[in-house]
């Protein structure tokens, strides 16, 4: 931790803020309009999902002024289209356009991203590019699953499971899909919402009027609509016609829709021509009317209004959604359908007629029964119309607006800087050996034992914590110091890091970073510990181990050493070994910066890792200690770069996520961890000592707010009453565990933030 003066902390006023547990409270969502980035294929592309995405945008704009939709249309590089009213387009086969779109969406600060998923619209390999795309999105993800396969390939299963792990809310259009997602794909039932496919709200019983428009007066009109292909089962419907027209020669079957473009590309119109040949052989060509077009929605609805019986003879019983089926029911059409999933749910309770697939006899018998009994036909049409009132667009818009609102992160709470966080959460993780690493929820997990990293942080906290009785402070300081002392391995001349619960060490040599952090803690203890004997112990161990650390080369370990040496210089000005460490560390960081920097990447390395602000923080400290203004300036410049990289377009703190680790020249938003907020705050305190720009306090304040809901999911991480902190922010919300690192990051952030607050108050 950056040096915080005990005198400064002692001068704080008495707290006046009530402290209470707030882990399970949820702030109210903002009352302003919700901004949603909507992603999917879009009209004029001719596919069902394009129609559905367009319907979402249009119906929310029509019925819900409180939801502002910004459309990102998926386009096909081989057949690009011109889109109207969209924010941007994304080439479904171009990974780079996905990356650019994700950046644009993040910078636009939308409240949620609503993604339409179907395996065929996100490029090759079942659209696996969508996984990297959603990983780059910071806003809460709403996922609409248009296809949920009961028997997917391994890749298809992996893709959908990944999307499920990123989603804050999941919309499906059938109960079967909901249950399948929960059972087979691991979706949390609490975030699953069944919203039936929306449908138009038109008056009932206008067949006569619309038949007249289309020259169908006095005809009994059967109809099927959709992109033609072998999966539609149209052969069976055509085979049923001879029996139907035998008793009802006025019947005509209208097959409306273009041949699927993929089929046209591979076979031309051979499939349609085969159906026409079948009709010719059966002698029913005069009873079929072909309309080889993909109709816009209004014309489709007009043609549906002229229909008496709508037929969906699909052989694939796993189809979970059919937009045209929803339209036909809402318009009050008698429907005869095979028992595919959507039909079973929509047409149950005698709303329509369900038949087995592959049987033209059943189609013929069902159609003839309705045509023979006009009263039964009329009654089924009325039942369908009444059922459709549940799915009309105003209802759909209301349901989807609620879905979006449920995904939006609530506003952050305000947390008083003058209120001291409790320590019960810290001490609950500790025993006579030290501080345990991990927890399951708030309960310490003994299986993972202890580590040096957490115990040095715990000692640093004891050095600055407020409100502790001296005896209690010394008790815990001694436990943590004893752990550090025992961690030193004189044979290996390094600190060990991991210890089992039975107090046996897991290793002879710990990581470079854990060794560097131990040096930092010793330097900070020599400066800040209230007890002189503890300061003396820290100084002696520091001077004993420091000469043996010259081989450490990890950039962060070197930065930790520099921070420890800078603290030692404050307690012992002119300390020779510390000056050497700072000179060596500053030189290394300068060389790294020269090798890693490029115009768009003002950083020490090609990748970003954890604790990123520690590198420029150490460079600033080195510059201040040695009077190297160039180092100080470089440190301030790179710290500002990483700070702005960890800031959303609204000014909210968005730490580099752990999923970014190892990825060159890029960073992802999740998982976000408390360690990064601590580093940002403490580095800002160091920067303020070198440059009193207002930016440092503003950025530190944003990082402090991150603990209290000022994050991409609006989740409360820190609890002032107990001093606990959740382990971070995931795409689905807070990681519920409260491990040592997270608790200590929050506690130490408080004291650094308080010191920065005091310094800025004095300058005002």
TrEMBL record:
Keywords carried by this UniProt record: Transferase
Gene Ontology molecular function, alphabetical: glycosyltransferase activity
Protein name: Glycosyltransferase involved in cell wall biosynthesis
Keyword flag Iron: no
Span of domain Glycosyl transferase family: 212-386
Keyword Nucleus: no
Lineage of producing organism: Bacteria, Pseudomonadati, Pseudomonadota, Alphaproteobacteria, Sphingomonadales
Domain (Glycosyltransferase subfamily 4-like N-terminal) ranges: 48-198
InterPro entries per record: Glyco_trans_1, Glyco_trans_4-like_N
